[in-house]
Design brief:
- Helix 3 packs parallel to helix 5.
- The N and C termini lie far apart (about 50 Å).
- This protein has a single domain, classed as Rossmann fold (3-Layer(aba) Sandwich).
- With about 200 residues, the protein is of the alpha/beta class.
- It is globular.
- The chain contains 10 helices and 6 strands, in the order E-H-E-H-E-H-E-H-H-E-H-H-E-H-H-H.
- The structure holds adenosine-5'-triphosphate.
- The site of adenosine-5'-triphosphate has 19 residues, from helix 1, strand 4, helix 4 and helix 8.
Length: about 200
Amino acid sequence: MKLGIMGGTFDPPHIGHHQAALAALNHLQLDEVIWIPSGRNPLKTVRPVPARLRLEMTVLATQDEPRFSVSDVEITRNGPSYMVETVRELQEIRVGADWWLILGSDSFRTLDRWHEPELLAELVRFAVIPRPPDTPGSARSSAPAYAAGRLDIVPMSPSRVSSTMLRIDLEEGNPDERQISPAVLDYIRAKGLYQRSENA
Ligand code: ATP
C-alpha cells in the first residue's frame, strides 16, 4: 500500500492543492492521499479560520476523488502540529504502508525548521511540487543532505493560486471561481468567511 499525506492549513483549500495531490497520486501511483488540515502551525503567523471550518472545507474540496480522504488527527491533538508526530500516529494505524509527504517546494524549503526533520525523512519520502519561482532542479538542490535521497519531484505546472491570494480576492468579493471548488465557495458564502468586516 502506497499512501500520501497532503498537509496544509487549507485556509481555504483551493485548486492548486487539488492539482498537487492528484499529480502526486498519479505520478507515484499512490493508493490514497490523506489530507490533513493543520492544527496550530508553528511556522505560520497569520491566524487561520477555526480548525473545524477548515476541516469541513477540506472535506468539500476532496469529495470528488474517491482516493482522497481527510483526517482530523492534527486538529484534535493539543499543542502545535508537528508532522513527525502525525506520521507516527498514522503509521500505527496503517501498518506496513509506504508513505509520501506531498508538499510544494516553498514548504519543502522550510524543512530544516520543522520538528525532527531528520527523523521525518526516515519515515516518509517527500513528493515535491516545484512552485514558481522554483524549477525541478532548484527544488531538488534545495534538499538538505538527509532528505536528498528521499525526494521525488512531481512533474506538473502548478497553478499560481495560493490561499493568501484567494483570501484577498474573497475579502474584495471577487474570487476567481476557477481557483476554488464550487462546494467550498458555497460553504464560504454560507458561513460568511473571509469577509472584510471580519478583519477590520
Ligand atoms: P498560504 O498562501 O496561506 O501560505 P498556501 O496556498 O500555500 O497558503 P497551504 O495550506 O499553506 O496553502 O499549503 C499546503 C501545501 O500545498 C503546501 O505544501 C504548499 O506548498 C502546497 N501548495 C499550495 N498552493 C499550491 C499550488 N498552487 N500548487 C502546488 N502546491 C501548492
